[in-house]
Structures are given as structure tokens and as C-alpha cells.
Amino acid sequence: MSRRGPKHFAKLAFMLADSDEPADTDLSHFRDRLLSAGPGDELLDLWRRKLTAWDFEQGPAWSATAARTPERRAEIYDKLAFGPELRKVLDTAVPVHTETGPVTISREFQPWYTREGAANRSFYWASYERLLRRKGWSAAAVAGLDEAAHAVVERLADPTREDPYGARGLVVGYVQSGKTANFTGVTAKAVDAGYRLVIVLAGTLNLLRGQTQRRLDMELIGQENILGAADPNDPDALVGIDYQDDEDWPSKFVSFGARPSTLGAFDIERLTSRDRDYMALERGISALEFDKADRTRPLHDPANLHASRARVMVVKKNKSVLEKLVNDLKKIGPILGEIPTLIIDDESDQASVNTTDPKKWEADTVTRTAINGQITKLLELLPRAQYIGYTATPFANVFVDPGDEADIFPRDFLISLPRPAGYMGVQDFHDLDGAGEAEKRHVRGIYESTDDRLQEALDSFVLTGALKLYRAERGVPEGPFRHHTMLVHESVRMAEHDALAQRITTMWHNAAYTGPQGHTRLASLFEKDFHTHADGPLPTPTTYAELKQYVAGSRRLINQGGSPVIVVNGDSERDYTQPALDFDRTPNVWKILVGGTKLSRGFTVEGLTVTYYRRTTQQADTLMQMGRWFGFRPGYRDLVRLYIGREEQLGKGRTAKTVDLYEAFEAICRDEELFRAELARYAPLVNGRPQVTPAQIPPLVAQHLPWVKPSARNKMFNAELVEVRSPGVWEEPTAYPEDPDALRHNTECWAPVLEALSYTPVPLGVDGGVQYDARVGTVSHKDLLAVLCDLRWSAPAQFSPHLEFLLDAGREADTIDDWCVIAPMQTSARRNEARILGHGPFSLARRTRRRGPLFGAIRDPKHVAAARRLAGATDLIGNATVEQHVRPRRGALVLYPVVESEPRITSDGSVDPRDLVMAFAFVAPPSTARGDRPLVRFRAIDSTKAEAAIIDRGDMRS
């Protein structure tokens, strides 16, 4: 059962058996053995790994079915020749993992990294895979990492190719979601494949660089490579060797049993260590001298490459450090052109992007920022260098000039990693579809009417610490409870951090946690909050009296060292090297961290349970990186609380305004999710070719983040999004005009549609869902296009690609006939109704513009299902009214007359059209799909410069 795919199992078992005669070919003993397997059974674990790996494999030669589908699993069983009973047993033990995998946008590439080839050279990957399993990773998690890492490595250049090529790529994860595990896996696979120099650019602080070095040393490089020739049993030989003071050495550091070079593999030499950044090549240029079995051939020749040692360095993104590295490499000479090199840039949107203003460049020159300049020099010196950026906020990277061949634009691929299992992300804090309890469970708003709620946040921190101690005594694994932290982020000013820390310390000492006043406060908070929202399967006391004894332990751990507060504000490296903040070497970090920007980038706050956040910013990627409350919270995700400002001042003087930080986060998260969804839509190949390439991604970004600068450098490119084809998809424009005359114009455009709607509302509903009343009517596709083409928009480019799709659909026969128009009616006693242009009355929906001129969500979620059924986009059955209106080539359009404030109503009950936003959403019928056409289409603005950047481009369509 190799990576070449599943084979006939009974025949294979007979071939491997000692018996001369076939034994039980009906596999009943095998089935019974699996049925009797208990937790941790080796045979069941083996089959779990194999089935999951086959399920996940992308485009294997042995399969014609899609990965992660029941069809793939059925094909696997067919090839194994398993019968129905055995299939049922295995499906119960190893369910098909149907969650989406990584999404890849890529240029066409020359395949070289096959599964067979990877299996033949897999020393370091196999070791890393075993380590992940020992750490408790599920088979699906390991297979998912394998899949994603393989997708990256196969898009790098073949390290043995004769002509040098440097691929450029970007891997996008989620904030604090395990990107380091992915690039560790990529590094393992890349060195196995033949890459012999690995340079990891790891943050702008020594602490972050040291964390990354330690992680790679512990999980990939291993004890034997760290020790070198030193005898681990000789104390004198260990002087100067890393990690001798580390409590995890050697037990948690991977071991190969012997030097890899004695096991048929190759050694890895470290050019940096935990406490020593790159200073200079320690042995001079000889450190990069590679042994060659055949000195007449280049290093990248297979005869030399696979037996040579690999070199790894983890380097801080610091101008002087990178200059030393560049200057040393310059001394080495022609051998640099022979070295297959991998450069991994962690947090690649920080410091690495060139943020100089192109308008200020001298003619025919590019002025670069310090770090960007050093990175481009590295790439120039190492023609076989592959550059991979890693980030959770990709917008700065995709706005790099793709025409600048020396820069880091991900011209070859962009891979969006899936949300990992167990990850607490946006969906856990925001009810994006208007339904759910995420906000109620985890978010505590700070308003003028609530005071600052800081004391409540401190009480929550003490309570959640006590609940962790309570759970640890009742069998919940206590590893994740080792650290327990609270983050307070109000300002970027360091003086304010010190004052805030002093205030929190005073508040802490006055909190009376050992007296009746404090216990009364904690008991009230426990009853109204933590007991109410506790996760059922986890142990939680029924009363505060049961928890009270653990409060003392929580308070003691938080107060150890004399102060509950640590200031971490980036004034100097000393803030990050405080022993009380060393998550690796300190047994328990139970502290309140007060800080600013430095706590929001790269620095992992372990055990973060309570966040108090009130800092404002207008940059989307900066705001997103501050979302430290995202991450993995095993055993205590129900205890996580976010105290966030809902009425914070942004700006000063006459330009000051009040902003809702929770809504700001929601808008950014919604746009990021939409961006990921767009990538997923366009990732499938059409006729074997990509629908989009990385160079065509920037317009997709701009489409979804027009309300705030996506990053500090806001570029638009020479690719204009012309058409978005969306058959069967709910589309919801939000860029409606603000000018009263434009609003009146739009309202008048809809007059013929309003006239077509029934006077009497009818009930609409689908398959037992919520039913609602609406006025309905039918208009021809031609008549609707006449309306849509005449509408005015605040951002025309947002709707124009969809309009192009609808126009194109109307040109084709047997594609679309007409539209069922729905105007939902409210039935509550507080409903707001008015006549529109003499028609109606109609219900007026109240919505607000949350993103500059753009609205947030327009729809009411309960309206979606009926519209999709009317358009034939779902198999769910509607009620009698819905089914009466279903036609094969009919779309559905939901009309939302929207008011933003109290409207002007005339004596006859009509609303002033200058106060009315005629918003809508639509679902085009599946008949508008054309299998031979991509879902998205672009055109070059300047056809003579198809890859050039255009700065600050305005909308091309009005």
C-alpha cells in the first residue's frame, strides 16, 4: 500500500504471507479485528493514516476522483476490493474528511515533485510526520499539512534543473493558526528534495527569531545535528552547545538515533543558534563549501546534491544583520549559482515589502526600503533561490508590483491554507450571517454607558484561571493551562502603557479577591456569564461556592513575582527577555500583559484567555494582526472573553469620529472571508488551465476592501476585473450612492419593477425554514437589464463585473428568460412602511454604511433560501407559492428599500425618494453557467504594459 495508491488488499496480503495457499480471502477476520480495536490500536491507526492520506491526495495518477469526497473513498475501496461490510466498519472508524483543503492560485508549472519521488527521499519529512503524531495530531491534520506542504514544494523549481529559476510564492494562513508548522513541513520536504541552503527570515525581534530557531531545532533539525560530533554524555563536550539549560532538552527534541549521514541521509548544519543571530559565517566562507562526489559537475547535479549537507540559518529582519549576510555571500563566488536555496519569509508583509513612493523614484531606478533592498540582493546573489512569504494578512504582498522582477511579488503561486480544526477564529466571535450566539458568548462591549469595564475584565481573568485549575483536577489535560494570560491593548504610546500598568496594579490590589466584597463580585460574574456560557462536555461547577477554593490558587499564580502586570511595548529587547514572559522556560506565565504594536505581530501570547482592546487604526492588516484572541484554546475556548470598545474616538479635532472596533473587525473579517471565497471560486482549472494567475488577484482585493486602506501601500494594478460569472450564487452589491439626487434617480429607475409587484403579499418559505411575507412579481430579463444599466453607484467597479455577466447572459439563447422579484414585508408591530412612487406600501429596512460609502450586509438571512430555490440553485423544496413561481431559466431578485435614518414621509404615506436606497440582491439561474468559460475575466488597462503597475488608479467605469 504505497503512495502509488491502493492495491487489491487480499492479493497483496497473500503475496506478503509465508503461506503457500491463500487464506481467508473474504477478509472477515480483518473486519472482526478492526471491530474489536480499542483507542490507540496500532492496526486501526495505520489504516486511519493510509485512508486519510489517499483521501487527501491531490490529482494522483491512480485516481480520477476529487480529493476529500465520498467518491474518492469509494474508489479506494474498489481498488482494495473491500466488500460492503468492511467498508461500513472503516467508514465508521475513519469518516471521510470533507472539509476543504488548501486553495491554490498558480501559474502553470513544470511537474517534478511527484508523490513517488517524495516518498523515495523523505528522511526529514518522515521524522517530522512521526513527531506530529506523537504530539497528538490527528491523521486528518497530518494529511492536511502533508497536502499543503506538497502543494508548495511542487511549485518550486526542481533543485536539479540545469537552468536556474527562482519561484516566488505566498502562503496565507489565519492569525495564530499554525503557519510555523506549515513552513517547517515545507522545509523538511524541500531539503529532502535537494535544497541545500535554507534562510528563514523570522521577525524583527531577537525573541521572535529565537522562538523560530528553537522550533526548527526541536522539530526538524534534531538532537544529532545540534550536537554534531559532541558526546552527549561528556559534560565538557557540551560546553557551548545549545539548549543545555532548556527544560525540554533532550526529551522533546526530535532524535534520529544516530547522525543522519550514517543512516543513509544527510546532515543539517546550523549557521545560527537559539541565542546567536547571524553574525558572520563562523568558519568564513568555508561554511558554505559543499562536498562534491564529482567535482567536475555542479552542486545541483544529482550526483553531488543528495549526499551533501544542508545549511539552515534563522535570521532576524534587521538591516545590519542582512547586510552582513549579503556581504559574506558576495565573497563566495560562482558556487552561489549552484546552490538550490529556499528563503522563507515569516510575516512577509512586515518590513519585507517595498513601501517607498514610486512617484518619487528617479528615472529608470527603483528606490527600496532597507529590508526589501537586502532581500532583493539575496535573491539576485542566489539565482536558484525560491522565495516563499508567509502571512495572515496578504494584501501588502499581493499589491507588490508584479512587473518588478527583482521584488517579492508572488508571481508563481498563492496558497490559502484552510482554517484548522479546533481554531478559534472570526466565526467564534462574530455572527456573520446575523444568527448565532458568538457575540453573546465571547464578546463584551465597552460603551460610554458601561464605564470602561476594566475591573470586570480583571475579575474575568481571575475567574477563568480558577476554572482552569478546577478543570485540571477533573481530568482535563492541563498542558494548555500551563500559561494563563490577559492582554490589554489601548494605545501605541509607551508612556500610556506605564500609566495603564500602574492603574491595573492599583486596581488589582484594591480588588479584595480575598474578602467578601471581591467574592461577591466574582460570584455575580460567574453566575451571569461563565456558568451561563459554559461548554457542556467540560467540567464546570454549578455554583460559585464550588469554585471559590480555586480562586486563591488563581490569584497566587497571577501575583507570583510580586506583580500581576508585565509591560511589553517594544522600547527595547529587554521587554521581551523578561523571565516572567519566557513561555518556553518559565513553568507558569500567569500575567496581565500591557502593550502596543509589538504584541500584535508575530509574538504568540500563550494561554490568552481575556483580551481588553480599545486601540484604533485605519489600516486593515494592522487591525487584523491585533486579533491576538484568535488561536487554539483547547479545554478553555468557552472561557475566552473579548472586551472591546464599541464607541472609541478615531482622530482629533474636527475630523474626529466615533468608531465601533467590533464592527471594524467584523468588516475586515467579512472581507477576508470573501477574499478567500473568491480564491476558492477561481482555483479550479478550466480545460486544464488556471482561471486566474497571482498577477490578477489585486482587483479581487480592491473589490472587497474599498472602505479602508488594505495596507500602508495601496496599489492598483494593470488588470481590470471585467466580468464575474456567478450562476446560482447570492450576490449582494453594497456600493450605493449617498447623493440625494442619485438616490432619487435610482428609485425612479425601479418604477417599472415596483409596478409589476403584486399588491397582496404572499407567504414564501423553504423546507420547514422561517416563512415570511413578500410582494412578488415577474419582469423580463431585458426589462431588468434596462433598470440595472441605468443605476448609479458610489463605487461603480464593484457592480460592473456582475452587470457584464448579466449582459452577456442576455446575449445567449436559452440562458435566461425572466426574474422573479421579491419585496419582503415586515409583520412586526414596529415595522416601518411607506409608498414608493405611488406603489405599495413597502417595508423599509434600516441599514447603516459600515465601510465608508459601502453598506455592511443588506440581506436578512431568512430571505436567502427562497430566492435560491426560485432561481433553481438548491434542491430544497419550497412552499406552494415558491414552487408555483419556479421556472427553468428564471432568476430571483430580492428588493430592499433601505433607509439610513428617519425618512421624510409625505401626507399620502410616500417616502421621499431622496431618502431611499433601493438596495437589492440577486441569484442568477444555473442555466447562465457555461462550462467552457472561466468564472472571472480580466483585461489589461494598457495592453502594451500588461504586467506593469498603475498607481492610485481610479474607477474606469462610471
Write a concise synopsis of the structure shown.
This protein has 958 residues and is of the alpha/beta class. It is built from 28 helices and 33 strands. It is 33% helix and 16% strand.
Describe this structure in words.
By secondary structure, this protein is an alpha/beta fold. A hairpin with a 2-residue loop joins strand 25 and strand 26. Helix 16 packs across helix 19 (544-559) and helix 25 runs antiparallel to helix 26 (796-811). 42% of the residues are buried. The model is unreliable at 702-719 and 940-958 (pLDDT under 50).
Please give the structural blueprint:
Elements: H1 9-16, H2 28-35, H3 42-56, H4 70-80, H5 84-93, E1 103-106, H6 115-120, H7 123-134, H8 139-153, E2 168-172, H9 179-193, E3 197-202, H10 206-227, E4 268-270, H11 302-305, E5 310-315, H12 319-330, E6 341-346, H13 370-381, E7 385-391, H14 395-398, E8 413-416, E9 423-424, H15 438-442, E10 443-446, H16 454-472, E11 484-489, H17 494-509, H18 516-530, H19 544-559, E12 565-568, E13 590-595, E14 608-613, H20 620-625, E15 631-632, E16 641-645, E17 648-650, E18 657-659, H21 661-682, H22 698-704, E19 715-717, E20 719-724, E21 730-731, H23 740-749, H24 751-756, E22 762-764, E23 772-780, H25 781-789, H26 796-811, E24 818-825, E25 833-836, E26 839-843, E27 845-846, E28 849-851, E29 854-855, H27 864-870, H28 880-885, E30 890-899, E31 917-923, E32 936-940, E33 949-951
Parallel strand pairs: 2-7, 2-8, 3-5, 3-6, 4-5, 6-7, 10-16, 11-13, 11-14, 12-13, 14-16, 24-30, 27-30
Antiparallel strand pairs: 1-8, 9-15, 17-18, 19-33, 20-32, 21-31, 22-23, 23-24, 25-26, 28-29, 30-31
